[in-house]
Protein: Glutaredoxin-dependent peroxiredoxin
Amino acid sequence: MASSALLKRTVLIKSIVNGFQASRAYASVAVGTDLISAAPDVALQKARSWDEGVSSKFATTPLKGIFKDKKVVIFGLPGAYTGVCSAQHVPSYKNNIDKFKAKGIDSVICVAVNDPYVMNGWAEKLQAKEAIEFYGDFDGSFHKKLDLTIDLSAALLGPRSHRWSAYVVDGKIKVLNVEEKPSEFEVSGGDVLLGQI
Amino acid sequence: MASSALLKRTVLIKSIVNGFQASRAYASVAVGTDLISAAPDVALQKARSWDEGVSSKFATTPLKGIFKDKKVVIFGLPGAYTGVCSAQHVPSYKNNIDKFKAKGIDSVICVAVNDPYVMNGWAEKLQAKEAIEFYGDFDGSFHKKLDLTIDLSAALLGPRSHRWSAYVVDGKIKVLNVEEKPSEFEVSGGDVLLGQI
Structure:
């Protein structure tokens, strides 16, 4: 599935600054894409404890509820509790949260192909829950719709997402950065995105 | 996939004590099954940090390495960071570890359809890593082979495992307990299994 998605992809890599910043336009997601109309049936799952999950009746959040009428910074990563994600990717947003807020950003969101309870446990461990909203994409449907899935079975992870970031205004993608390899951390960090808003 | 596995299943439910202890014999796993020969190609992934994963070159552990010539207590559950698992299932083994060791058990193992980094984060949070060996079954292949998978998408988890426990000697299943529903905790706890060894 991941490999056929890969074949379908139209990958345009464009170096922006000194070869450091690369952005890709995928077949189904690019600058200009309206996430709300592109994926009206897709929902994410707000990170929460299991008990909160039960009391919420396992409610999910449609993309409209996340993006409509809002300025959103969102970044995706291969998995909770993996290396670059914990050590660099999340901190690069957490540590810049005041600067994002100063630019009028309504929410800074972290998403991964994990369930919302794992995302919650990880967010608590990183002490990042106050600054960043964490969402699970437990069945990968959000990342599949965006054509941002990748098979990371070799790293014992299975089907996950690329490492990416985006600036989204009222559902429309204004900036999109996708790392060439999920082990890299060149274009998807908070510092880079701050300079693009 | 989960539903076809369900159809294939031969489910025999047998009440043992006051309707409280129930054991099921599945099509592909039952008391007497030799796990090593039933699933020679299946491996689990020892829980570890991402950095340990990298330095181990993402090594996995074949079932033979886990069960051969050993007396093993193993229990499986729907997921790291879920309710019954964190609050009751793991503690029921952790708190009885001395009693299991006194019975000559070589290892007490917890397994779930999660990646090994999530399992490691959860084990650390539960302060259970010293007593219990945690393994991931990231692609579900172990539980598929045992026909113990269940679709828990309604709880935002996706394809996971039943809640179960077993006593395994040199690869052969001597005792097997599977909860009728993964939300239940009647037959798969450490106290029950202690009485069955």
About this structure: Residues 47 and 120 of chain A are 5 Å apart (CA to CA). The mean pLDDT of chain A is 86. Chain A touches chain B at residues 45, 49-51, 53-54, 58, 60, 79-83, 86, 114-118, 120-122, 125, 136, 138-139, 153-158 (CB under 8 Å).
